[in-house]
Amino acid sequence: MSHVANSKGRGGFIAGFLILPLALYLTFVIWPYIQTFGYSFTNWTGQSPTFDFVGLDNYSALMKDEVFGGALLHNLLLLVFVPAITILISLFFAFMLNAGGRSGAGGVQGVAGSALYKVIYFFPQVLSLAILAVLFGAVYRSDEGGLLNGFLTTLGLVDPSHPIEWLNEPNFVLWCLLLVVVWHGVGFYLVLFSAAMQSVPKDIYEAALLDGAGRAQTFFKVTLPLLWDSVQTSAVYLGIAAMDMFVLVSTMTSGQFGGGPDHHSEVMATVLMRNFLYFGNAGYACAMGVVMLVLTLILSAITLRATRREHVEF
Amino acid sequence: MGSTSAHGENSNGEGFGRRDLIKRSAALGLIAVPTMSFLSACASGSEETTKGNESKVAVTKENPFGVAKGGKLDVVVFKGGYGDDYAKAWEAAFDKKWGTTSSHLSTQEITSKLQPRFNGGNPPDVVDDSGAQQIKLDVLAKGNQLADLTVVLDAPSLDDPAKKVRDTLMPGTIEGGMIGGKFVALQYVYTVWGLWYSGKLFKEKGWAAPKTWAEFMDICQKAKAAGIGGLAHQGKYPYYINVAIMDLIAKKGGLDAMKAIDNLEPNAFADNPIALEAVEAVYELVEKDLLMPGTNGLTHTESQTQWNQYKAAFITSGSWLENEQLKQTPEDFDMQFLPMPVLPGSKLPFEAIRAGAGEPFIVPEKAANKAGGLEFLRSMLSREWSTLFAQQANSLTVLKDGVDPAVKLRPGTQSAVAALKAAGDNTFNYRYGDWYSAMGTELENASNELMAKRIQPKEWIKRAQAAVNKATEDPNAKNNKRS
Q1: Which residue in the set A130, A142, A263 is minimally distant from B294, CB to CB?
Q2: What ipTM was predicted for this assembly?
Q3: Where are the alpha helices (DSSP H) in A157-274?
């Protein structure tokens, strides 16, 4: 195969491998996006091949849609809290597992049993969101049979004839869902940060210790700056997760595709699905999809931009 | 919503997991659908290409739709509380008679399985469009995807060729399948809605089945005193508590009050003392703390199971309840149906019940074997097929006297049949849920807030009327009128 060896031929060879995945990507990822964009200017019902072009009607209706507006606010709220809380907790635990132990004999190590903890922390990540929804459905169950209510009534904090309807309380429901996401995410990001921390040379920690730095100082002055790349990536990923939330909201809360009670847990994806499949406003739903796409892109760009730091070499 | 089988989750006892699964696959469908429709896009722009490729068969009295012998029949049924054995039996009978080859698909995921096919212009020939993932009929009708089934109504009945099919149906069947002024869906299962209680519990406690709302409240009080809840409802799906509210309105105000709502009249709820009284009556349960604790947040299976465990005296539901709870119901529970008790001065008697046909079977307009689909529906309305259904699914069909008397029914179904007999012509059924999905959802949201004590009856009325007014903007609003 002598012609493979020459560089021109090699280019063709590589392109030959790439063309199929690229074609698949274009067909199944990019093209639907473009199509969604096209449909967003129509009154397509979603159940018929016929539809009319309605211009920007869907977008102007979207501007006035209070339910979608509320959903957008919820997404933004989640966008602030999901990454912040998850990353903080993961960082704290990761630090404790890797460098939080007693600094005996100059070595830097995690708290006792940290290898075991790492495995345990990772457990939630193994579960799919669908299973989580069932699991936490049982935790938040609105009668005495729920884990939380059962626990609180046993302690005498809650009157058994008036249990707390966690997911049916407008003020709780979003936070209840937030907790599930955080619970699910911490394990994964802990392992991610742990890996990053382990690649930090021990001598840096030792030097910090010799200089008399405490745990907090070590964390803020040494660990965090060296981990910044990982934190940044995590923030983007968690941000995207916070913009979605569809599976949890749609299965755990009341209403068609969730969002209840009375739109208090609505996220953009649930409003979209309800309009798409239940109300038969597929064109309108496509407009929502376009808005979601644009927002997610903007937010990712902002996150990457805002968290840009000088890369620390070691 | 509103369909019997939407709640037929008992078939494998894990409604929650599947509900979720369905939604996930629906989400996948969201991605898949635009792609699929792209594949057919070339055709979809001018999709009125010739499709009558089947050879024309002479239309006779025995073969009113011209079914071709030896063709193919594509049947899709919702596999819910009624299973799918009945459909298999039907298909076997159909194939035997017409020499066709039936393909059978039973699924929970009607929308995600069929949406691409409707969009692509190659839908099945017969669809049982039910369940939580049914394709909404108003949406299909809007897209001209449904065949006009009037021809089936006017065809001769298989049992008695001298009669037309339309003369063999239970009252309300035809009305229940009308969308936009056309008969497009055969609602096949006859259902009654109301309250349910345990005959055993009531006997033990010495309670008599209440006939008035005051008596009903009295029993709820007694139940509370006995340490159990009065009324349970499936709080996560406020559809069910609306059965109580809307039935009270219909019984107090008569059919006119019901029609005012379906016809989206400006005073359907607003300035309507009857509607307010009904909502206040239900709200009294909340105020006096007579609901089963926690019921507002429970799913249908959770609250029904609690009720089966004697944690509440009453529950609202339709007659699919017994079939749905088959596994959770204690042997001696003695499930009993109760028409909604009446408010003082009601226009309809206590015996009046919400009754109607559910489980819509449709024939898509673009079905390859449309004649076969229509013939299939005509066969469903024969005594032979109706009895097959009653045996396999333990439920009644819309065919008058369509079940062999030899079929033995369970206590709940038996009591529902007795109630139906007692009601006679006093049956009613709302249509707004099928006609206006968004309005139905709004009413449910309002009721959820009401039951959680977050809004007052007056606010409920305000929100309900707003939902009605909004529904008048629906393009179908001018066609959906009942008199």
Answers
A1: A142
A2: 0.84
A3: 173-198, 202-210, 215-217, 224-244, 246-252, 268-273
